[in-house]
# Entry
Amino acid sequence: MTGLLFKNVYFSGTMIIRKKLLLLAISLYLPVQLMAWGQTGHRIVGQIADSYLRPKARIALKQIMGDESLAMAANWADFIKSDPAYSYLSPWHYVDFKAGITYSEMQSYLKQDTIADAYTKLTFIIKQLKNKALPHDKQLMYVRLLIHIIGDIHQPLHAGRAEDQGGNKIEVAWNFNETTNLHSVWDSKLIDAQQLSYTEYAANINHTTVAQREAWQKTGLSQWLFESNQIAEQLYNEIKQPGQKLGYRYTFDHIATVNQQLLKGGVRLAGILNQLFGS
# Structure
């Protein structure tokens, strides 16, 4: 009887361990499918935003985040996917739209949007952070999510189409021989091809005028999403066949768009943070 009991306990324990390992494997796979910009891109957005913080906002964020910078906090929402307890956050990173959607159609859709996505959850997070009585742990979590999701929606394919999972199902050949997908190219490969650290990259593209910043910041979330969606539609139209080869010319043609989206993301993130904490 003792031997049988031991075997049952051993078997049960082994099954639990296997289930946990399976959940971990699944959760580690999800970030590859759902990340936007990759680690470097998100840190660039955070670094740019940091340069435009008002003094009062900087002090308030220091109280919430301690020594964690905006750049380093920017990837928390992707790192936390390794914990199954946070799997509910996965849909918060993107919004799917039908092909060829107009701005008025998008506005109508977003007004009725009730599902968990980047639009509804950014709206929720901003509302929550206006509550000065919000517990510190919630403040920290929502600030980290705010930094990340604003970066996300400036990656064009996070405002793409549901049927191809924002380009994840569109197979391409990067630099002629690496099999990957369109989403991954825009997440990280275009940025990584520049061979710059996030601080070097931010310093090289962070050149704006006051007029530019004001224009970018005064528009709302729906406009930001529409801009990304329109870029995504152009990217879809450029892919003519599965496995299409994308190389140096593709980088040359698109790196300016990548840089502008990173820059807009950083400037607009700073604008939101200044509204929340700097006034």
Summary: DSSP finds 13 helices and three strands in the chain. The first helix runs from residue 2 to 34. Strands lie at 171-174, 178-181, 244-246. Residues 4-17, 19-33 have pLDDT under 50 and may be disordered.
